[in-house]
Amino acid sequence: MNKITPQPGIMDIALYQGGQSHVAGVEHVIKLSSNENPFGPSPKAIEAVRDSAAALHRYPSTDHASLRAAIGERHWLDSARLICGVGSDEVLQFIAQAYAGPGDEVIYTEHGFSMYPIIARMAGATPVMAAERNRQVDVNNILAAVNDQTRIVFVTNPGNPTSTMIPEAELLRLAKALPKTCLMVIDGAYAEFVDGFDGGASLVDRFDNVIMTRTFSKVYGLGGMRVGWGYAAQSIIDVLNRVRQPFNLSLTALAAAEAAVNDIEFLSFCQAENARLRVWLSDELAKIGVPSDASCTNFILTRFADRTEAEACDDYLKTQGLIVRRVAGYNLPNALRITVGDEEACRRVVAAITVFKGGVA
Ligand code: PMP
What we know:
It comes from Ruegeria atlantica. Belongs to the class-II pyridoxal-phosphate-dependent aminotransferase family. Histidinol-phosphate aminotransferase subfamily. It holds the Pfam family Aminotran_1_2. By secondary structure, this protein is an alpha/beta fold. It is 37% helix and 14% strand. It folds into two domains: 10-40 and 265-356, Aspartate Aminotransferase, domain 1 (Alpha-Beta Complex), CATH 3.90.1150; 43-262, 3-Layer(aba) Sandwich (Aspartate Aminotransferase, domain 2). The protein has a seven-stranded mixed sheet with strand order 2-8-7-6-5-3-4, with helices on both faces. Strand 11 and strand 12 form a beta hairpin. 4'-deoxy-4'-aminopyridoxal-5'-phosphate binds at residues 87-89, 113, 156, 160, 187, 189, 215, 217, 223, 228.
């Protein structure tokens, strides 16, 4: 052989789809496709980033002690049992890399986050999809897919792109039924939008094989900084730290996240505005014949007659400078996922879809 070839399995890894922020020929776009915070980051996070600039010649903290302490205090968690990553994507990747490999299986659910099969393959493991039922995670289907090779089960709660919650009793049933040799990862990227939901922390405290992951990319408005974290048993955190690069988070990212987690006032403002505008957006779209399931996150999953109509609507929205998300790749071909933007963005979406549906905006 006289050709450079990648390792076996690398070319089976799908390229991540999403993150589009430009439309050819359209100057001003409103991006509603990545569930970002329309109100930006906390002003205190911006200030902290500016302040951190004077120390840019220094390496950042390797153990993230200060950020972990702030997260621990805010969420009432033992900071020694926290790990921080470059977005929760990286924490999810640590988990797959450390606990799954060739010959192992990793379960994710039908409409679950698209990175799960990608990181399973990056670790050399085989992703296995468990069907959902009416856009809800189905614990029976997950358990039916479990076998001796299963090492990890990923569930998103609340779901993306479904925005549905797994009932507490069902999550508990799953945690109890999984073999102790299999990890259960509760991905709570949108947990802050759900009043009273602990993201799965109480299950982590009860079961040594349960891990919770969270992010600063959504309600905290720090997607550009790339900070996420995980909470698990000490023994798991000790393992995950071995596959973590020593300086994985930048100085500015650490400063921004710490300031953001301490700015409770800004957090409450974003949560309240999102809840108000989400109801308005879904109600107005329902009135013009575009229903969506009840949402508990910062996006809604709108339903169209079929895939053709959903894609035609998406194409039309693009011409109006509105980028939303097709979710055919999540096995939801007749749906579009729309991030709840600020008031102007929500009004523009409703006006544009009204015109698309043949009405007068
Ligand atoms: N989990 C879910 C369910 C998500 O929707 C996302 C981002 N789209 C992530 C994890 C990863 O987020 P990040 O890496 O920005 O923390």
